[in-house]
Structures are given as structure tokens and as C-alpha cells.
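Example for tutorial group B:
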């Protein structure tokens, strides 16, 4: 059997390695347009910033390695021009010599990847304007920095790559301006979590402009849609990627609703004996079961393995993704998985949302606060999504949540997890457990939450309500929500005998715990509608100060 793979890097090489493990006698060939066939794309920002000393560390494997270890023939600088699925013939061009020739296959795997999305900005074709998609682009950026010594940079887009490059340019002493078309940074987050990222970026001296876009790029600046001018000696476009689907489309391979190649759970396309995997393909969301396009190296590796297995007689199946992501910006860590609040509402879920502010370990062990946003299905208590912003222990918690969502856990299950505890690593009840407890109380124990936005809506609605600040008087005097009344928790039982039990009552404290205690007192005294402010005054004030 002759297996031909178009494209290398994460998906293509994973497919080849798995195929070889299954079948020692198969002829396995990879054609790739690029010079580099296996590299760590996620490590590229750190080479630009100097944290990774050598580019060789990001490109550990070459065609000789694959030939020696897997007996796979890899031809770099070779572009597949067309696929004849009826005859099983490929037309290929050697980009180094210009020679065009044909090859045949019994099974074919497309791993053609994706390319940077370049928005139609005037002046975008400029030697000072860069994208970061492969090692070649990385080397161009590094060379420009080393030779031209830019003092300022504009980054258009605030996803993972944009912020990771931002950090590394800042480390080099380059002044950075971030430009984001959406109302908030980090599009994968909801606004009430993105505000923490924006605040931190500004605290670190990075200029953040949201709700605006670039209209023109000149030799020295970026002109924005509102006419303002941003000084920039270099510009990075971090505006996402698009699947390389042209070859597939010309061959009659169907695309999905996201315009990436449509595959089934075994990575099969609609054409017999042709598979596809990696950034050129559409995935499906493990929560909703609906098509999504979330290209990541980890997913590409997984899909490549599945494609290589099935092309050589195996039966591995793809189980979907949660759209998980994590990145670091200076010292802050940002992570998310599953559905955002926005996405959950769009999908028709009636949801409950909580904001849990807890340290990753006891303060006496140097614990640092993280903000965990949990989104759950009100109907059955299933956990739908989580977002975390913090400084330590974020990766540990997000992976627990990922596992829980993958196995369709409900919020009440989180409390019962036997998580590892010792003071150097966690609090006695881990923040994961607290998140489950808060959501479980809201869904099943008649301890409803109200978000900051919902409280603002209530205040503006004209409906009669009572807003109670349950903190000590000294905390209230320092800062409080404008329409609130200070009834400290210690005096709540006496006050409960005098207030109107039929109007809406909202309690709050600094982060939520004492607010919940006050809520309990009122509910146990016969109050009908009592809400605790999610994330407390600390979260509410963060949203209203930014």
C-alpha cells in the first residue's frame, strides 16, 4: 500500500508515524511546500523574545530523522498542484527546480494546514508588516528586530499569538500598542473576564485600544478607523488563520459550515480513500456536537494520529474538542475551555454563571488570587464552560475542569473530587470544589446568583429592590455600590425582621462568601427573592473601573 500525505508539521507527521506503527510494509511519502516539516509553532514568540536561545530548539526533526526512525520519505519544497481522485494521481511541483511530475496513491491524507488571515488594510504589503505562522515568518521578524532595532510596535489582534508576541516584544524593550476590533481583548473570553487581562496589560505599560480597527499602515504608523495615529516601527497581524482548502475544494472534497474540510469521526472526507486532519479540517464541539473551527497544534497532533490509524486499517475515532486554550502574558495566565457565557446563550442554554475569587494555595504559603468563571446548564446542572485568570495554579485547575466537562460532569460532582491537597499546592477545599459548590447552591439549593450586568439592569429597571452590603462598616465606607445599604453580616438577623420580604434583595460582600451567608439568613427568614452578587464587590468594581 502506498500512503501519500500532503503537508507535514503536527498533523502530517503524526499521521505518518501512526501509519508506520500499524503497517511496516506500507510506502509512506510526505510532500510539503515548506522547508521546515516539524516545529513548535507555539514556541515561536519566545524565540523572538530571546527566551528560546536557538531556532534549532524549535525544529528538532528533519526529513533524515523521519527516514531513519519511521522509514518515511519526506520531500520538502514540493507543492501538490492537483488531486485526481478517480485515477488516484497527484500532480506535484518541485519548488526548487520547477519540475512538475505525477505520483500515485492508494490512500491519501490531507494535512495542508492553515495560513494567516490578512485583513484588507491599506499599506498591509509592507516589509515592516508581519504575520507569524511558521519558522520562515519567525526568522523574518527576528532578523528585522536585530537589524532595524524598532522602538515601537503595533499588534493587530489580541488572541493567543498576539498577546504572546506582545509579551516578548515588551521584554526586548519595544513599546507595544494592541489594537482590537472587538469591544474587549482576548476574544475567547467573555468581557467580564477579559477586563482583568486589559487592566493587567495597561498596568505593565502596554497601550490597549479596543473597539477600533486599522484603516491604513504607513512607514511609521498605523492609522485607526477613528482617525487617530499610532506610532509603529513594526506591525504584527494577529488576526487569526484560514484553512488551506483550495486543493481539497478543487478535487471535489466537501467543506463544512466553517469552510474547513469536512471529515467524519475517522477523519474520512466525502471521497473514497482520502482523509484530512489538522488545521485544514473542521472539528466538532464536545459540548454542543456542532461544527467549529479551532485550529491548535494539540488538536492537529490528535487528528493526525487518528487519520494515520484509519488509513492503515485502524479504528480510532475523534471525540471532539472543547476549544481549550491557555497562554501567559508576562506573569498573568489566562485559560478557558468549553462554552463561554456568550456562546452558551447563543446555543439556547439557560445558564447559571458564577465568579469565584480564590487563592491557588493558602496566603501564608504565598497563594495568589485567581478568578474562576463557571458556566453551567440550569436545567440539569451540567458544567458547560470555565474561564480562569490568575498567576499560579491556573493550568492545574483548567485541566481538572476540562476533564470534568469531557465526561459530562455536573456541578455537584466537583465538590466530591478527591483532589490533591497540601498547603504548598492548594487550599483545603480547592478552588475547583468551591466553583462546584457555588454553582450547585445556585441551581439546586435556592441560593441564586446575580451577575454585575444583571444587577446594573435591575438598578436601571425601576423595579423596587434592596441592595445590602454585608461587609464591615469600615469596608463600606472605603468603597461601595452606590445604591447599597450597609447591614453587616453580624447584624443581619436583627435587620431581617424589619425589611420587606417580598421585594428583590441583593446581598454582597468583598468576594461572595459573606454575601452568601447574609443571603442564607434572609432566605431562612422567609424572604422570597434573594440574590448574592457573583464575585462580590471586588469583581463588580473591577468591571466598573475599566
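The residue assignment follows.
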Amino acid at each position: 500500500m502506498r500512503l501519500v500525505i500532503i503537508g507535514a508539521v503536527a498533523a502530517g507527521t503524526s499521521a505518518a508515524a501512526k501509519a508506520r506503527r500499524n503497517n511496516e510494509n506500507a510506502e509512506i511519502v510526505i510532500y510539503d511546500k515548506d522547508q521546515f516539516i516539524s516545529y513548535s509553532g507555539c514556541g515561536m514568540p519566545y524565540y523572538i523574545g530571546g527566551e528560546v536561545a536557538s531556532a534549532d530548539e524549535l525544529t528538532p526533526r528533519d526529513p533524515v530523522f523521519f527516514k531513519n526512525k519511521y522509514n518515511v520519505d519526506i520531500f520538502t519544497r514540493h507543492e501538490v498542484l492537483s488531486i485526481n481522485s478517480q485515477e488516484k494521481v497527484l500532480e506535484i511541483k518541485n519548488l526548487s527546480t520547477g519540475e512538475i511530475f505525477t505520483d500515485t496513491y492508494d490512500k491519501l491524507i490531507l494535512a495542508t494546514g492553515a495560513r494567516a488571515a490578512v485583513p484588507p488594510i491599506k499599506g498591509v504589503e509592507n516589509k515592516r508588516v508581519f504575520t507569524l505562522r511558521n519558522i520562515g515568518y519567525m526568522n523574518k521578524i527576528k532578523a528585522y528586530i536585530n537589524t532595524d532595532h524598532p522602538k515601537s510596535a503595533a499588534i493587530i489582534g489580541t488572541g493567543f499569538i498576539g498577546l504572546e508576541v506582545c509579551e516578548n516584544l515588551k521584554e526586548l524593550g519595544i513599546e507595544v500598542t494592541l489594537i482590537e476590533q472587538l469591544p474587549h481583548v482576548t476574544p475567547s473570553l467573555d468581557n467580564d473576564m477579559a477586563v482583568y487581562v486589559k487592566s493587567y496589560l495597561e498596568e505593565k505599560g502596554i497601550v490597549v485600544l479596543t473597539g477600533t480597527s486599522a484603516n491604513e499602515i504607513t512607514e511609521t504608523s498605523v492609522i485607526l478607523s477613528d482617525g487617530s495615529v499610532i506610532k509603529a516601527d513594526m506591525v504584527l497581524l494577529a488576526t487569526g488563520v484560514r484553512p488551506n482548502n483550495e486543493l481539497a475544494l478543487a478535487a471535489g472534497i466537501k467543506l463544512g459550515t466553517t469552510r474547513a474540510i469536512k471529515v467524519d469521526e475517522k477523519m474520512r472526507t466525502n471521497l473514497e480513500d482520502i482523509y484530512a486532519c489538522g488545521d485544514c479540517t473542521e472539528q466538532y464541539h464536545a459540548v454542543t456536537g456542532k461544527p467549529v473551527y479551532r485550529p491548535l497544534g494539540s488538536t492537529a497532533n490528535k487528528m493526525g494520529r487518528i487519520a494515520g490509524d484509519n488509513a492503515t486499517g485502524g479504528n480510532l475515532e475523534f471525540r471532539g474538542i472543547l476549544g481549550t486554550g491557555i497562554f501567559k502574558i508576562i506573569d498573568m495566565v489566562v485559560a478557558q475551555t468549553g462554552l463561554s457565557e456568550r456562546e452558551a446563550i447563543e446555543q439556547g442554554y439557560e445558564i447559571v454563571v458564577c465568579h469565584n475569587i480564590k487563592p491557588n494555595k493558602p496566603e501564608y504559603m504565598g497563594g495568589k488570587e485567581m478568578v474562576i468563571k463557571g458556566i453551567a446548564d440550569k436545567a440539569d446542572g451540567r458544567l458547560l464552560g470555565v474561564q480562569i485568570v490568575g498567576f499560579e495554579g491556573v493550568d492545574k485547575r483548567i485541566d481538572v475542569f476540562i476533564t470534568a466537562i469531557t465526561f459530562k460532569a455536573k456541578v455537584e460532582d466537583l465538590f466530591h473530587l478527591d483532589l490533591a491537597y497540601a498547603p504548598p499546592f492548594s487550599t483545603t477545599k480547592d478552588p475547583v470544589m468551591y466553583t462546584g459548590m457555588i454553582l450547585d447552591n445556585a441551581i439546586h439549593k435556592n441560593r441564586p446568583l446575580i451577575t454585575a450586568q444583571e444587577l446594573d439592569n435591575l438598578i436601571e429597571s425601576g423595579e423596587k429592590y434592596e441592595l445590602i452590603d454585608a461587609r464591615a462598616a469600615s469596608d463600606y465606607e472605603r468603597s461601595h455600590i452606590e445604591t447599597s445599604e450597609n447591614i453587616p453580616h453580624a447584624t443581619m438577623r436583627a435587620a431581617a425582621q424589619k425589611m420587606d420580604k417580598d421585594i428583590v434583595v441583593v446581598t454582597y460582600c468583598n468576594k461572595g462568601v459573606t454575601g452568601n451567608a447574609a443571603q442564607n439568613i434572609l432566605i431562612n427568614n422567609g424572604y422570597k427573592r434573594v440574590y448574592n452578587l457573583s464575585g462580590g464587590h471586588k469583581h463588580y468594581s473591577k468591571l466598573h473601573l475599566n
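The chain has four domains: 2-113+242-311, 129-239, 331-443, 449-545. Compare this with the pattern of hydrophobic and polar residues in the output above.
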